[in-house]
Automatic annotation (TrEMBL):
Signal peptide stretch: none
Entry keyword ATP-binding: yes
EC number: 6.3.4.13
Official protein name in the record: Phosphoribosylamine--glycine ligase
Pathway annotation: Purine metabolism; IMP biosynthesis via de novo pathway; N(1)-(5-phospho-D-ribosyl)glycinamide from 5-phospho-alpha-D-ribose 1-diphosphate: step 2/2
The gene coding this protein: purD
Species annotation: Microbacterium resistens
């Protein structure tokens, strides 16, 4: 197949690596990509936000499938423009992408579909936010309604901080004040063709910047898959996945279909396992980052077949995706100052040495260059690289990941040392 992948992060690089690892050789195109993606796909000039231009490009170059990686173009309606031209595209249209783009929309769909989630009150003013705090009590959970690049949520006992967070987002719309939920979090992805869903394997990410879940929230500092502890709680991981399929994914996909806005793409269920049962904390309308980097290396079923089937409405004909028994761990290398004020433009050394560790692949998040043949790459953002390691168990995969990341040098960079430490014990 000829496949165009849109986006420039580690998630898109991981998708491209999974497509490349298939027995069938594909022609892989990417835009805008990054320095790592450029090693594994051909970079092409097309604006990921320009739906008509993407459709024209796909027609002209006989592209069989367009995969839209990030949420912003999805919420902007890029998939609609491509799908209207009859081109298979993996990614929901503007209406269904509201599941991620608007927390109010997501709550309405969950209510209508009977999906378990935290109680939430919408506030459009300071007074309404105060009333919601009184009603729901501390700790306070306040969520910006729209896309906020991972910065929209605050969870705090400090009422003044909660109010300040609400006031930051109120001028641009409403906020949701939500019931505080507690328990381990799980990310579970579903491929959907608008009607049928196919679950992938559960993963967990590490959102805080520093070891021991200290420091500010980030886009994600690491992840691992599968989650062995699910079996203790649910009898088996399969039982957990079945329950989420039945109580979360299917009702949401059916509801969106009934509203005439089918969800075609990746439904990301962000779940919290509370003492009272599974609750949805958020939906995303695309693959999670960095969870994708640990889920896809374990996928045995060819990814291209699944993405195409979801895009053209034939997922029902696809068997359940199969995963290997190997485990995967990813550790994110971040620039100095990330997340508040990342220092960029610095040289990255040691990538080849890191990649030579058995079971390790280097997935690029924000890299550019080299300026000269054989030269070094530079870091262009906060999260720079993901070191992904597979292994027979978590001790093995962690040892490989940390051996590899130790071989990379980037001035001032930092990474967490405790990714998947608990499951390795
Ligand atoms: P979100 O951007 O919705 O994924 O929220 C970011 C993080 O905030 C989640 O991963 C949780 O750790 C936390 N969070 C969100 N909603 C709640 C809630 N209702 N109760 C407790 N923590 C929450
Ligand atoms: N890992 C969180 C996200 O992709 O939104």
């Amino acid at each position: 197949m000829k496949i165009l992948v849109l986006g420039s992060g580690a998630r898109e690089h991981a998708i491209i690596l999974a497509l490349r690892s298939e027995e069938e050789a594909h022609v892989l195109l990417a835009a805008p990509g990054n320095a790592g993606i450029a090693q594994d796909a051909t970079i092409v000039e097309v604006d990921p936000f320009d739906g008509p231009a993407i459709a024209a490009f796909a027609n002209e170059h006989a592209v069989d499938l367009v995969v839209i990686g990030p949420e912003a173009p999805l919420v902007a309606g890029v998939a609609d423009a491509v799908r209207e031209r009859g081109i298979p595209v993996f990614g929901p249209g503007k209406a269904a992408a509201q599941l991620e783009g608007s927390k109010t929309f997501a709550k309405r769909i969950m209510d209508a579909a009977g999906v378990p989630t935290g109680r939430a009150v919408r506030a459009s003013s300071r007074a309404e936010a105060e009333a919601a705090f009184d009603e729901l009590g501390a700790p306070y959970v306040v969520k910006a309604d729209g896309l906020a690049a991972g910065k929209g949520v605050i969870v705090t006992d400090d009422r003044t901080a909660a109010l300040a967070h609400a006031e930051q987002y109120l001028p641009s719309g409403s906020v949701l004040v939500e019931e505080f939920l507690t328990g381990p979090e799980v990310s579970l992805f579903f491929l959907s063709d608008g009607d049928t869903v196919r679950p992938l394997s559960p993963a967990q990410d590490f959102k805080r910047a520093f070891d021991g879940d200290a420091g500010p929230n980030t886009g994600g500092m690491g992840a691992y898959s599968p989650l062995p502890w699910l079996a203790e709680q649910f009898g088996s991981a399969e039982a957990f996945v079945d329950e989420v399929t039945r109580t979360v994914a299917m009702p949401v996909v059916q509801r969106l279909d009934a509203e005439g806005t089918p969800f075609i793409g990746l439904l990301y269920a962000g779940l919290i396992l509370t003492p009272a049962g599974i609750r949805v904390i958020e939906f995303n309308a695309r693959f999670g980052d960095p969870e994708t980097q640990v889920v896809l290396p374990r996928l045995v079923t060819p990814l291209s077949a699944l993405l195409l089937a979801a895009s053209v409405g034939t997922l029902e004909d696809q068997p359940q995706p199969v995963f290997s028994d190997e485990v995967a761990v990813t550790v994110v290398l971040a620039s100095e100052g990330y997340p508040e004020a990342p220092q960029t433009g610095r040289l990255i050394e040691g990538l080849a040495e890191a990649a030579s560790v058995e079971g390790v692949r280097i997935v690029h998040a924000a890299t550019a260059g080299p300026d000269a043949p054989g030269g070094s790459l530079i870091a262009t953002g906060g999260r720079v690289l993901n070191v992904v390691a597979t292994g027979s168990d978590f001790a093995d995969a962690r040892a490989r990941a940390y051996e590899a990341i130790g071989r990379i040098s980037l001035d001032g960079s930092h990474y967490r040392r405790d990714i998947a430490a608990r499951v390795a014990e």
